[in-house]
Amino acid sequence: MSSLPRTVAAPFTVRAPGRVNLIGEHTDYNDGFVLPMAIDRHVAIHVRPRHDRLVILRSGRDPRAVTLDLASAIEPVPRHWSNYPAGVIVGYQRHGYGIPGFDAEISATLPAGGGLSSSAALEVATATAIETLCGRSLPPDEKALLCQQAEHEFAGVPCGIMDQFAVCFGQAGHAIQLDCRSRQIVPVPIDGAVRVLVIDSGVRHSLVDGEYAARRRQCETAARLLGVRSLRDVGPADWARGGPLLPAIERARVGHVLSENDRVIAFAAALGRRDWPAAGRLMRESHESLRRDYEVSCRELDLIVEAAGGVPGVHGCRMTGGGFGGSVVALIDRSRTGAILPAVAESCRAALGREPSMFVTSAAGGPEVRATGG
Q1: For the whole model, what pTM was predicted?
Q2: Domains in the chain, ordered, with CATH?
Q3: Alpha-carbon torsion 329, 332, 338, 344, what sign?
Q4: Active-site positions?
């Protein structure tokens, strides 16, 4: 982010990208590996400073404005979108930021609940707005962790670090291979021969509904039974010795996490050597593992993966995001995009009985601030 003025009097707009995870699902909260990329769809907040201690939040998806009083304790509201910015505001207050009042008009080109991390984009956009207003910034990793904590505390979603890190560290033309234990980031170039296609299933998930938290608890139980701190520490000997003794559900969950970590490393290597058949095979294996062992897919996602995966020029596809709905991500041959899109639309229409919305995207940069008119 560019240098910030000490006092901001003029309106400005913050944009924070969504993200699509190419591979590495439900591994982040197990200290594993993920390979997301920021995308060219975003959440935007148009900010107008106020002369009082109120924050007025307005969203194009909700006609009712939300008012937060910065001079009073801010508490979460059950199952409400305002929890995401409210939690971030509280996080910065705890860091000693003297946040002034402001009006925030929120808009998005990201579908909410589509598995593209609209919540993390809203959190990071709010964080960037606060930093701009206050003229001081946290390091990007601390900013991402603050946003993650806001989601835990205010939205009730025990998410890992992937979404917020992907949004904060987005790099044009690159995915990022993130080690969720060390937080080491390795940029992975995405060759111009391929593009990323996102297909929205139209099934809206809510990770607050309990299934996401249940998967996390199952992994924690399995780690405890295996005698390790997290599933990242399970080696081949541990798995051979302790895996057969685990309850069936925990055994299946661990099987996915261990194999998915291996797939992330192999997928990054396949991108590097431009081995599209290998990359596609790994995506298909990932989806099957998420469907069978982690049980976070749904009928619509499975139908789209099968339908789109059979179209010539589609190297591979899989569900992306937390699951239970959301989107499918596909790696496609860029030179054949014009033929692939109508073929995927027709194939999915035949499978679903309707044509899903979809878009082609590229790897984008992280949050940005632009001066705007009144």
Answers
A1: 0.91
A2: 12-186 (3.30.230.10), 190-361 (3.30.70.890)
A3: negative
A4: 163
